[in-house]
Amino acid sequence: MLFSKALIPTLKETPADAEVASHQLMLRAGMIRKLAAGIYSYLPLAQRVLQKLKIIIREEMNSIDGQEITLPAVQPSEIWEKSGRWNIYGKELLRFKDRNNRNFCLGPTHEEVITDLIRREVKSYRELPLTLYQIQTKFRDEIRPRFGIMRAREFVMKDAYSFDRDEAGAEESYHKMYQAYTNIFERCGLEFRAVEADTGSIGGSFSHEFMVLADSGEDVVVYCEGCGYAANLEKAEVKPPVGLLENESLKNLEKVHTPEQKTVDEVTNFLGITPDNLIKTLIFDTDKGPIAVLVRGDHEINEIKLKNLLGCEYLLLADDDTVEKVTGAPRGFAGPLDLNIPVYADNILKGATNMVTGGNGKDVHYKNVNEPRDFKTTRFADLRTAEEGDPCARCGKPLHMRRGIEVGHIFKLGTKYSKSLHATYLDQAGKESLIVMGCYGIGVGRTVAAAVEQHHDKDGIIFPKALTPYQVLMLPININDEILRKAAFQMYDKLSQAGIEVLFDDRDERPGIKFKDADLIGIPIRITIGSRNFERGKVEVKYRESGKMELIDSEKTVKYIKGFFNKKI
Ligand SMILES: [Zn+2]
After folding, report:
1. For a FRET experiment, which of 332, 482, 546, 561 has its CA 20 to 30 Å from that of 246?
2. 395 CA distance to ligand 1 middle (Å)
């Protein structure tokens, strides 16, 4: 491709509203342009990157017998009403009416559509298992679209769905997909981790997220180097302490006056203690009535763990009225002593000695509270959010944390949708059974953004080999020098004929501008043709990643580039 004919509108300045590197660099490299909030056009460079990623995805999906389909983007409300999601999906679902006043939505996901299709088309066990996938534009009306195509409203996604006769088959499909996803992100040259993720209230199912590691990531990856355990922050389990942590003698319970001291900071400062000597008591409203939850003052409660423990749909911090009704005190003074509601406590509080808690009265706290001497606990469980250095639940070694960007999610669905949409098949005995499903997504645009987040420097993008829009950027120093111009075009033809993807910067621009754009766009190899080197039969090769430069024989350029791209990663 000749740069002079390409639509690559690079920008010198960083656009003011772009917060993260991928957003800034993709705008500056002329890859994307915003049409409206969270809605982007993909320009030719981005399109080429997407195309490469899609090829990798298709190859890996096809290798596990996935079959590609295209489902409608516009979906009628009826199937969403059947699955029960029309009313609970919320404002992210963009709804509208057609000319006949029928309700439709723009698909944010396709479980309903595909389950409805399979319900009609699959009748017998002989037709199962089946894995179908598509690569398609989806729409979710995010409340706060941001970070460019990382969290857009309109986005390209690969979604796949597996249909099996039974749980064992569904698990096998899941494991195949896990391996395919691993292959995809490895082939992209991305550093990533597959982490265990929360599955919500669907019991017996499991789920993994694929996270590209990057400091700018919104998610936290918790991992153990001891046993390989990895989970997202919501899910990461903490090993319960073995035996008592402290061996203090139990002091007598003491009521203390704590005027207006409500928060952990206020109370600990006022009493001259550290937060790990305090029990934080939180009152929650649930669909099973109010409950109290205890965590140590320096820990964060993990509401997802709590929700899973209770098996409830609804869980929210109680309002002031409920807190007052339940504890007899305004917010800030709740404690576990003499509470008449269920009390759930984090494992670390088992046998806790001489702690401070709220006193269930205005301006009152207790000192020297001891478990179990002074209060009753309904149940101990892992209820806090893991922190750096916490013991791994599997092997006890310290947990570590890194930030990540979720680019893929695989989920064993079970029969949630086949039940509500009545997707069944006749088994060998002629009995009607529910199809067991899995669903699997890759954010295609987001993977590209994540690749840029992970691979860039102050000058621009550093594309991994597998995703780069072109393999080589060819840059003649002076395009107006007839001899050089001719030589450059000859080399361009030669490389192109050899099947190498070349972006040839034939623009009549100063070299400085061309070099800057080359670094910004981030093609792995830059070949500079200058007259002095060329007279000696040499061209200059610069690697975008290492910045290393060397002179090579211009005759050997094809062989050289092929060698570079054939080397793994
Ligand atoms: Zn471990």
Report:
1. 332
2. 4
